[in-house]
Amino acid sequence: MAATAIDRVPDEAACPGGCRYEPKWDGFRALAVVNDKGGVRLWSRRLKSLNDAFPEVVLAVFDALPPGTVVDGEIVRWGRDGRLDFAALQRRHVAGRRRRELALTEPCHYVVFDVLETGGTDHRPRPLSERRNILEHLLSGVPDTSPIVLCPQLRDAGEARVWFEILPAQGIEGLVVKAASGRYQEGRRGWWKVKHRTTTEAVVGGVTGGAAAPETLILGRHRPDGRLRVVGRSGPLPPAARRELAGLLTPAGDDHPWPAVLPPGWAGGLPGTEAPTPYVRVVPDLVVEISVDAAAEHGRWRHSVRYVRTRTDLHPMQIPKDLHLE
Questions:
Q1: ATP-dependent DNA ligase family profile domain: from which residue to which, for each copy (predicted)?
Q2: Active-site residue identified among 24, 37, 48, 178
Q3: Is 37 a catalytic residue?
């Protein structure tokens, strides 16, 4: 089941049967299926097996859940600083033989937020409130030391808004909001997600579509040593923004600090999973205000950012360095 993005945390009455509020985890979504013989399979949203990448989670599911169980959740990794470490999850996909070593040195947790089946009984038609009770009972005997974690849930919108403000410090993107009376409908967007966003500034170093007709922006920030590095990419620009920016952008020559083609992962996506990004380099002298969420790794915003406005009053060296948002 998926979620639709909204801009504000809704009141309790906005959901049929009342709203339930949960953290929006920055990890890998996974279904855990325990067959009738106790065999465990972790499936990604794209129905790819995650067993080889996360053997410690497979073992924990085997220990915690009885045969005939299907649950939904998120595989996460907490770093030593207490923040979610998405880069640690990325390493599992490229580590190959090192995966089992990383399972010991960088163990992950599986945060479970829904139950679809137990003992061969399909719970998807039941309301979330009933499924939650079943899930709490299912995990009641799991020790605190287990990598299996019950997702916390709130019913009060005021408390949820406090969560919304403080959880980004732990690398949690925001909240997922669900109707207490809602059924589990796979493939449907029946939940809501609210991401915590912050406005900040970045330098336009390139565009897709061309300087005269920009479609998206490739954004940079200067390191403390003065080098300009790629830190993110905007979503598609609205027509008015395209017209405004076209008059402010100047195509750059070969003295531009970035390569003519950006390597995979430099402008969004996971390194090694996407093709290089073709773009047009522009003179990096224009600052824009953008809206970003909390998901950042390797010195880049992982999700596309939202263009807000130009900041012709700011010099590129006046904006924050790296991803500091102050």
A1: 110-235
A2: 24
A3: no
